[in-house]
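In response to the reviewer comment on reproducibility (Comment 2.3), we provide here a single inverse folding case reported in full, input and output, so that an independent group could reproduce the run without further information from us. The structure tokens appear first.
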């Protein structure tokens, strides 16, 4: 079960990836992935295409989504796996979570204009495969194209994070709501890349306690966003809170993502993989 090459976190043009769902499925198959999930931000519009492409490539498939949440004033991402993508309350909740993105994008562009960078809204929109899902990633790609920064990592360091000139605070979904939408739609909720949140130990304890109390069941242990030391740390967190463990590259784009689909190390053996509990939700190739 641990040795299955499962990659349960990546993005397509339906959110802020640069590849179509079909191209991602082909890339996953080429890299030896056996069980795959497409987890676009706040959007399930790519799920039917991803499931069909998985079947065509001989991959087992779990439905996926990555919900943007605000917890203790910080953005936390919650991955949902194995839910029914037609579920009305889930779709409504995701639509509400996406709603603020257009206005936020105009505000980000206004902040960048103050820093001397014009045309950022139109520039970012031109990179967005889905105009309802305009993300900081699209601004980052515009700023690289415009020659302002050398790569998207540099854009985030200089412009799009708290304390920098292109940052706009935003309120996403509540933790309990995101977990409930996923669980009520038949899925399992997983805390995505917790190592990226930079919480104090007290805040992190509160996150996992509340997450579990709301019915959250999993945590990403092996992800493209964690260091090997963080694999070990979140393996311990999984055991402490009795959570299932997940594995996913968080692949976005060939030119940007350090970690390709299906290339991460396996989960540490004492953990129970999230897919062990989702066998009844797997769409077989
Ligand atoms: P948003 O949902 O619009 O706030 O955008 C968040 C997205 O920006 C994430 O899903 C990542 O794809 C990307 N991102 C966030 N921080 C960084 C970073 N430091 N370097 C590169 N990409 C980042
Ligand atoms: Mn992203
Ligand atoms: Mn994320
Ligand atoms: Mn992601």
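Designed residues, in position order:
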């Amino acid at each position: 079960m641990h040795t299955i090459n499962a990659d349960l976190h990546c993005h397509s043009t339906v959110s802020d990836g640069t590849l179509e769902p079909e191209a991602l499925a082909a890339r996953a198959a080429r890299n030896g992935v056996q069980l795959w999930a497409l987890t676009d931000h706040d959007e399930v519009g790519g799920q039917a295409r991803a499931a069909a492409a998985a079947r065509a490539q001989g991959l087992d498939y779990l439905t996926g989504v990555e919900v943007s949440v605000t917890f203790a004033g910080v953005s936390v991402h919650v991955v949902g796996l194995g839910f029914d993508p037609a579920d009305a309350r889930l779709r409504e909740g995701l639509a509400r979570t996406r709603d603020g993105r257009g206005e936020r994008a105009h505000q980000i562009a206004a902040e960048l204009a103050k820093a001397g960078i014009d045309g950022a809204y139109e520039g970012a929109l031109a990179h967005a495969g889905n105009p309802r899902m305009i993300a900081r990633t699209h601004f980052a790609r515009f700023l690289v194209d415009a020659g302002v920064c050398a790569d998207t990592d540099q854009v985030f360091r200089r412009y799009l994070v708290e304390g920098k000139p292109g940052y706009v605070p935003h309120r996403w979904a509540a933790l309990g709501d995101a977990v409930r939408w996923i669980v009520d739609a038949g899925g399992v909720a997983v805390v995505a890349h917790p190592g990226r949140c930079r919480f104090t130990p007290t805040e992190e304890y509160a996150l996992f306690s509340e997450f579990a109390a709301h019915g959250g069941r999993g945590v990403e242990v092996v992800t493209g966003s964690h260091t090997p030391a963080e694999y070990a740390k979140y393996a311990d967190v999984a055991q402490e809170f009795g959570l299932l463990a997940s594995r996913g590259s968080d692949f976005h784009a060939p030119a940007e993502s350090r970690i390709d689909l299906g290339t991460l190390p396996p989960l540490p053996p004492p953990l129970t993989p999230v897919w062990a509990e989702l066998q009844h939700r797997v769409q077989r190739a």
